[in-house]
Design a protein that fits this description.
heterodimer, A: 323 residues, mainly alpha, two-stranded antiparallel ribbon, two-stranded antiparallel sheet, 3% strand, B: 269 residues, 2 strands, 74% helix
């Protein structure tokens, strides 16, 4: 591989062009799609952000969390409760929700980061179940199993509501898009490379003078905060919050999105999210046995596409170059 | 004690093969359903216990041989595969047995209760306690007192050397996975008369099993036993005193123990 200056600047120009095209595409989408499909796109954006935030943990830092839905759900509940019970506007409810998620993640992180590997997986799962247990059991606050209905769509000012589908779409696009770009920025920063170093060898990074624990803690909280942003958006989108938001199934689903797309690539998990959201909507139109289908997908991905979609594409490309 | 049956299987599989088996709860649930079917067909509780457990053990062995074998020591694919099976089994169970809980009659021999110190103890519960202790003793003996146990411990400590010594490690692993599945199904059938068999039990039980092995320490029989006791007590008292926060009373102490001893009470790093 010899990357000359000319070709790399051509490459970055190519990336800029693709980026511009994507922005234009997403900007005109609401004028092309019906309400139903626009809803799907919103859902994809939200889950793409969610999956990318988990990728920061799994793909970059090498910490497999099975409780990522906890932060998604906590933020959703925070937004729901603040706007329903205290009638806060989006300007205060959304930042407050993110602060709450960060605090919860800091607490969980203190506990979970004492462990690694399978223990980490189990404790993140158990902690998310604590959150689920509270959401489910604390009926007077959270409505228990019934959830919180009628969460209002955000309004930027008293006469500027985002209740319409198009305006809400742009709201999600702006926030989720910013979140994704920030995540990509983090992943490409020296901080992101330090995380990759930790993934490869913690002891080596320690020997190089990195405070490994602090890096992991920061990654943990960052990932949780972005998951929280996704969760808050989802609460606004569905106008409803229920304990399902922080259930293990959701944690597992987002894990599948990450691996299906390709862990450690950021763009992969976003694609994975799109695939899963679309499949879920298409398949549940035909059959109620969605669990069997998604279970089979889990196994097939593990067996045949361990590198995910991105890994598969890269492999194809590599083959073409060789032949 | 039921928790011990469950956790010992989970712990065994993890301790020896480093597989975090998320399908474990499904083994429990399917064990319960299979037991129910056999019981209805034959009317014999003993046959139900044996038949269901053996059938589940077979499913476990097939899973290990054809799906998990190739992912030895690769954590993420293992999680994906076992999660996939968890979904599939739970959905299949709902298709076949419906969404309503099913109750299982107690075996007639243990239908009564014993009076002791003015309290009544249903004999079936006493029987389960005795049975759990018996299984614990058996597993102990298997691990520490037999040739197979020695081979197992050798394979865990140093797989390559064990292979070089002519021990068939992969066969051992398959058997262990089968045994773990067997134990989970055993818990499912034996627990049927007390707890009933219902959809969603697979998940509940899996989480409880996790907590038990986290508290006790993965891969430790003693840990599974002590952890099972602690979690069982916490669960019962929690449900009585803080019904709204039932899960919380289990998970909060677990988080505490983990914070102090990350490898659990009897685990080794």
């Amino acid at each position: 591989m010899s990357a000359t200056g000319a070709s790399s600047s051509a490459k970055s120009r190519g990336i800029a062009a693709i980026f511009l095209l994507t922005v234009i595409l997403f900007a005109v989408l609401p004028y092309l799609l019906s309400t139903y499909y626009l809803g799907l796109v919103i859902e994809i954006l939200i889950f793409a952000l969610f999956a990318m935030s988990l990728d920061l943990l799994i793909g970059y830092t090498g910490m497999a969390s099975l409780g990522h839905a906890a932060y998604f759900g906590v933020a959703a509940y925070a937004v729901g409760l603040l706007s329903l019970k205290l009638h806060w506007s989006v300007w205060s409810a959304l930042p407050a929700a993110l602060i709450i998620v960060t605090l919860v993640a800091a607490l969980f992180g203190l506990l979970a980061l004492r462990t690694r590997g399978s223990y980490f997986l189990m404790i993140t799962l158990a902690l998310s179940q604590v959150a689920w247990g509270i959401a489910f059991g604390w009926h007077s606050l959270t409505g228990g199993d019934d959830g919180l209905p009628d969460v209002p769509r955000p309004a930027l000012a008293s006469d500027w509501s985002l209740a319409g589908d198009r305006s809400f779409y742009f709201f999600v696009l702006l926030l989720a898009g910013t979140g994704m770009l920030l995540l990509a920025h983090v992943a490409m920063s020296p901080f992101g490379f330090a995380l990759r170093g930790i993934r490869e060898s913690e002891t080596r990074m320690q020997a190089l003078g990195y405070n490994v624990w602090r890096y992991k803690f920061a990654a943990f909280i960052l990932a949780a905060a972005f998951a929280g942003l996704a969760g808050a958006l989802y609460a606004y989108y569905n106008r409803f919050v229920s304990p399902d938001y922080l259930q293990v199934f959701r944690s597992a689903e987002v894990l599948l999105m990450v691996i299906l797309g390709g862990a450690g690539t950021l763009i992969g998990p976003a694609i994975g999210a799109a695939v899963i959201v679309l499949l879920e909507n298409v398949i549940s139109a035909y059959t109620e046995r969605w669990l069997i289908v998604i279970g089979t997908i889990y196994i097939l991905v593990a067996l045949f596409a361990p590198g995910g979609i991105i890994g598969f594409i890269r492999e194809l490309r590599g083959r073409r170059v060789k032949s | 004690m039921l928790l011990f049956l469950l956790a010992s299987g989970l712990s065994l599989i993890f301790g020896l093969m480093k597989i975090l088996n998320l399908t474990h709860g499904s083994f429990y649930l399917l064990g319960g359903y299979f037991g129910l079917v056999v019981l209805q067909k034959t009317g014999s509780f003993v046959l139900a216990v044996l038949g269901a457990s053996l059938a589940i053990a077979l499913i476990g062995i097939i899973m290990e041989r054809f799906f998990l074998r190739r992912f030895h020591l690769q954590q993420l694919p293992q999680v994906l595969v076992t999660f996939g099976f968890l979904f599939i089994f739970s959905d299949i169970a709902t298709v076949i047995w419906g969404a309503n809980p099913q109750s299982m009659p107690r075996p007639e021999l243990f239908a009564g209760s014993l009076q002791f110190n003015g309290f009544y103890y249903p004999t079936y519960r006493l029987f389960i306690i005795g049975f759990g202790l018996f299984v614990a003793a058996f597993l102990w003996w298997l691990q520490d007192g037999t040739r197979i146990g020695a081979m197992l411990r050798a394979s865990v400590d140093n797989e390559e050397i064990a292979r070089a010594l002519g021990i068939n490690v992969s066969l051992l692993f398959t058997l262990v996975f089968g045994l773990g599945a067997f134990l989970a199904a055993l818990g499912g059938v034996m627990g049927g008369p007390i707890l009933g068999v219902y959809p969603g039990a697979d998940f509940e039980v899996l989480l409880l099993g996790f907590v038990v092995v986290i508290i006790g320490g993965l891969g430790s029989l003693k840990g599974a036993l002590v952890g099972g006791l602690i979690v069982g007590l916490l669960d019962n008292f929690g449900k009585v005193f803080f019904p709204e926060l039932a899960l919380f009373t289990i998970f909060a102490p677990m988080a505490l123990i983990l914070a102090i001893r990350p490898a659990g009470l009897f685990g080794r790093e």
